[in-house]
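In response to a reviewer's request, we include the raw inputs and outputs for one of the modeled complexes. The two entities were modeled together in a single run.
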Amino acid sequence: MKKLTFDNLDELAIGSAILGSGGGGATIYPYWMALYEVEKKVSVSLMSLSELKPEDLVIPIGFIGAPLAEIEKIPSGREFQTMFAILEKRLGKKIDVIMPFEIGGGNAFTPLMVGAQLGLPVLDADTMGRAFPETQMSSCYLHGLSCSLAFLTDSLGNTVTIEATNCFSLEKIARQTAVAMGSSAAFALFPMTGAQAKICTLPKSISKAIAIGKIYLESKKKGKDPLESILSLCKGTCIGSGKIVDIDQMISNGFLNGTVTIQNKSDKMELFFQNEYLVAKHNEKIIATTPDILMLLEQETGTPITSEILRYGLKVNFVTFPAPSIWTTPKGLELVGPRYFGYEIDYQPVNKPKSQVLGIKYEKAEL
Amino acid sequence: MRKQNYKIGIDIGGTNTDIVLVDLNGVIIAHAKTMTTSDITTGVKTALKLLKNETKINSDEIRGIFLGTTQAANAIHQQHNLYRVGVIRLAGHLPQSIPSCFTWSKELKKVLYIDTVTINGGFECHGDPITHVNSSEIKTAIKTLIDKKAESLAIIGVFSSLNSRQEVLVKEIALEMTKGKVPISLSHQIGGTGFIERENSTILNAALKGVMSDVFKNLVTICTALGLACPIWITQNDGSILDLARAIEYPVLTVSAGPTNSFIGGVKLAHLEDAIVVDVGGTSTDVGIVRNGHPRRCLNNSNIGGINLNFPMPDVYSIALGGGSHIEILKDQIQIGPRSCGNKTFSQSISFGGNQLTLTDVALVLGLVDIQGAKPKNVLISHKGCRAIMNETLRRIYEVIAKIGPEEMQLPIVMIGGGSSLLPKELLDQRFIIPKFANVANAYGAALSKISATIDIIVSLEDRQKVLENLQSQAIQLAIQKGADFKSVKIADIEIFPYHYIPNRMARVIVRASGNQPDWL
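The model returned the following structure tokens for the whole complex.
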């Protein structure tokens, strides 16, 4: 077990935004919530998968709903306490360990907040390896874990227990329940044993996000561009760079859909997003797709630019990181590949050695 | 002699107080500059007297006074004269996940924050109350805070931008209980989503109510003493005007009026509606963009003194480069700023007998300016070297301008501020304009402020066109109600921020209508 420090929280805020692939919601409110709880207590412990006992009860948690609602009707801070009492009664067992169901975006902080509050250790793992918009996009589902029990609790203390027959039904019912709860609810799903967690979860997600944030902040402190060190840490690739010249976005089916265009002289890159960045084209040719992590980092500061904060004129580096390997299998791609999101193309991994990549170097715009 | 009509623009900055006298056609007739005094108002009085003596105008020829000031921001930075604030959260789910003033510096929090009481109320994003308000609970909350010696109250309801009635009810009860002696700030009057940021803004507003109402009321006293009986208007963050009563109620709305006035003043001096404005000061250069006469607003990270706020502030791109900037010549590179001689430039620069090489020295050597008492011969840098420094200066300025956005690159660039005269005109491309009176652009911007109305609301866009048309006509009506000249009122802009995961196509829509001051002003 490892105690998390305040520095770790700052690092996680950066790392989780980068792993969010453009989505996962803003990290600032969840960061404040975790910081507040950790300030009150001594600290929160991070547990590695190897420290899990086979019979431990492990619960993945996070918030489900609209980030907008969460930043206005902020959580009561007691949601998980209420839910866990019901959950433990239902399962006849005490919770031993909690973990984030997704590492990308604000939900990375939920178990830290709750862990500090309730004195529960947090498992250094998640079930997505990034951020995804739907419940079934989970390593637990892929490994055939039962989703027959899930819990939602709102900030007024109402709890809904869902016994679903399959994960797609769970997604539909949980989404509607969250809307009825004011579009923001605490969510726990895929309760599992320690033995199952060792097989079904993605290991070291939190420490990976913290490591990314650490390298980022250390480079910044030294006045250096964090890009190179992040790329080498995550085996990532800088596809190219340029200036955002167009943002076209609209809402449909509950998602923020759109295209962002990045121009560098005559080179044009287009990035398609549905909350998360999903597909990238370079001069009409597809160069990167989900489930690889696609991310924009501002050139000057290295700040991760999520789809919610895109703006004209930003100079960005477009980077990709390889997808967690479970997503690149045929079964994984069926769940989170480009076709699931409506793009009639196949997954194209970015796996070229760095020298072969486009590597369009940004040059000063001509005035 | 026939009577003329004029108006006065005042800018109270951190260092200087500038005043311009403008005729009704917007022409500057006279201007005056004094040092800003610690009591704020003596400086204004001196400058007003200077102006009156110089022009011999009669007090009754002045039809309006327009004040822009950075004093609200300064009071926060200096933690000076702030009220101690009690906070009431209308939030039936009793949130404890983020307390009030959580991200603030300990010192500021200690200076102005007393306590928070959370009571039933607030709304869900779809409009239902979270829980119903209860007047006896409201009374207990107010009494608790007053007993703890709260001098000012801040009321924040969840989603109060959707429905303000609960906040208004609390205000009515509080005014009755305190006989109107304790000022009340309501969060929906400040607007925007993001509970914590709106709470921060409301608390700051409550804290500023004493010091800023003093500034505004003293201004009235001075004007009365000088026989100026005309109305006084205060410029707010978005560059439009507040009447004095509302400025006294919501002083936080004036917190970023300084840069706004300089951007608006810049375009107006150049007779433009759309331009990039570059304000070259002594320590920094601020670049902003003006569209339809309004500065572009900043949507992320608007904050003051490290406190996250949620109301619109102008989008300002700043670099630490100005007339007093220190210049270091390193082996193969020229470093300009970030350190600056600031208001000591005319004593610390080499040309003035000091030992610091500044941008002003370089301009003097190149003969770009002529300043009384300056001895540019003391500067031991060749013309070639000076030109290299100027090239680097302009490169840095061009670099900031480039951040604004590609579609703005064709716009004219208006250069204003005390440092604007230092730059070599021949190195500026044809987009650049340095208007006359560039050094009093802020006060001029204040004098010509628009009258505007903003509707900032979360609505369903299921019936998109109808909803948007409705909001636009509401905004126009509101601007006319506020006194805008009805012939000139138009929609200045519409911003739509769609929210994902929420059904019914909910979006935050900000519609702003604005018009000119009426003919008689």
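As requested, we also summarize the result in words. The longest helix of chain A spans residues 205-221. The CA atoms of residues 22 and 277 of chain A lie 5 Å apart.
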